[in-house]
Amino acid sequence: MSDERFVHAWLLRLDPAWRRRDASARRLEVDAFCEAAARAEHRLMQHSYSTIGLRAEGDLLLWRMSETIEGLEETAADLLAAGIGAWMTPSISMIGLTRPSQYVKRPTTQEQSLFSGERSKYLVVYPFTKSVEWYLASAEERQEVMKGHMRVGHRYPQVRQLLAYSFGLDDQEFIVAYETDELIAFQDLVRELRETESRRSTIRDTPIITGIHRPLGEILGLLSEPNR
Asked: What H or E segment, with its residue span, contains residue 25?
């Protein structure tokens, strides 16, 4: 079986008018969306994160992985047509491929593990693009710079990372995602990484989406019955 998998970070924004609908209609539409999500999970891996009040662009982050890009497309269409999905607008959508890193010879559980094992409480995901100068540097120079970058990352074992390659598939070059139970430790990691040589080659690493891992039904419950 191939190591390549399509990764999809999908931020959905709920139309505020939906909250003014009748409570019984809202319940039926939440149920229909959850049923579509269950159908999707027969075809791919999918985890849900709340971004309610955390990003103006959206309320629900779906973090998805599929063996085919058609799997992402077809399940996305089903979700948008089902219940509350008809009231949601995709505001950020990024796709990429997981592939073996040219800089890491033997990946640890800290890398490429964000779809296996238990979920951490928080997911942070963002697009990433490097400079032309980075790619024109020699492989030896780039490897040396990345050694320093990875040395810092390994000092924070409580933070796991996934890198998906988006070249030719999407606007960014990579999707970078981190999973952790400790946002303070994650911020310390990011601050240290800002001081490494690899930072010189960064062109873009925003928008940054921070999500709180919750079951899908719980997130939709917060959106439909916030005072319960």
From this structure: helix 23-40
| pLDDT tens digits, one per residue of 165-217 | 999 999 999 999 999 999 999 999 999 999 999 999 999 999 999 999 999 99
Catalytic residues: 126
Q: Which of 47, 223, 59, 72 is nearest to 123 (CA)?
A: 47
Amino acid of residue 16: P
Domains of the chain: 5-97+213-224 (3.30.70.1030), 101-211 (3.30.70.1030)
- Residues 9 and 60: beta-carbon distance below 8 Å: no
Question: What Cα–Cα distance (Å) separates residue 87 from each residue in 21, 28, 128, 175?
Answer: 11, 13, 30, 27
Tokens 């033997």 correspond to 106
Q: For residue 155, give Cα distances in angstroms to 41, 181, 185, 188.
A: 34, 16, 10, 11
Count CA atoms within 13 Å of residue 80 on its CB side: 14
